[in-house]
Write a structure and sequence with these properties.
It holds the Pfam family Motile_Sperm. By secondary structure, this protein is of the alpha+beta class. Helix content is 36%, strand content 28%.
Length: 186
């Protein structure tokens, strides 16, 4: 599931949509559905479907006009392998699938209004294209934003690891100096 932790929304035209990318890494078809704590604020498309083995699905989450994203808003992505992937009706599948076989992933919402973007995109060039071109650009933009979010998370974990390693190196240097001092005094 990408992004791993949060969906970002803002007040700008391009910021009112966020993209969830589901990758099926199993050998079977996977059924999924997306739920939210604030269904009156968001439109999820598709909210329920299936994904072939090795494929990925783009889920577009749109914030309704006049609504504001809140940190209390959450999304739940549920997925389960469809072992006998026939023409089984998804609603029936979800009624029959055992709870232990359902994988759950939670995402929280983040408002971009508090953070000003470093780069302003020219809206005219993005939205003067045909409707199909606009959709492609919008999807590509959301993919870039999702990738950016993943890279930020990886960078933060690398910085944390670097601090821990620096601390350990300082401790080793101190122990080494202590040993040299003790050897020199004896």
């Amino acid at each position: 599931v990408s992004p791993a932790e949060e969906l970002s929304f803002g007040s700008g035209e391009t910021e009112r949509k966020s993209l969830i990318i589901l990758n099926n890494v199993t050998k079977n078809q996977v059924a999924f559905k997306v739920r939210t704590t604030a269904p009156e604020k968001y439109r999820v498309k598709p909210s329920s479907s299936s994904c072939e083995p090795g494929a990925s699905v783009d889920i577009v989450v749109s914030l309704h006009g006049g609504c504001q994203a809140s940190p209390q808003d959450r999304f739940l992505i549920m997925a389960a392998e469809m072992e006998n992937a026939g023409s089984q009706e998804l609603t029936q599948f979800w009624k029959e699938v055992p709870k232990p076989k359902i994988m759950e992933h939670r995402l929280r919402c983040h408002s971009l209004d508090a953070v000003k973007p470093a780069v302003n995109l020219p809206r005219e060039s993005l939205f003067d294209a045909s409707n199909g071109g606009q959709q492609e650009v919008s999807t590509a933009f959301m993919r870039v934003m999702a990738c950016n979010s993943r890279l930020e998370q990886k960078l933060n974990s690398c910085l944390w690891l670097q601090k821990v390693l620096t601390g350990l190196v300082l401790i080793l240097v101190a122990l080494n100096l202590l040993c040299l001092y003790l050897l020199g005094t004896s």
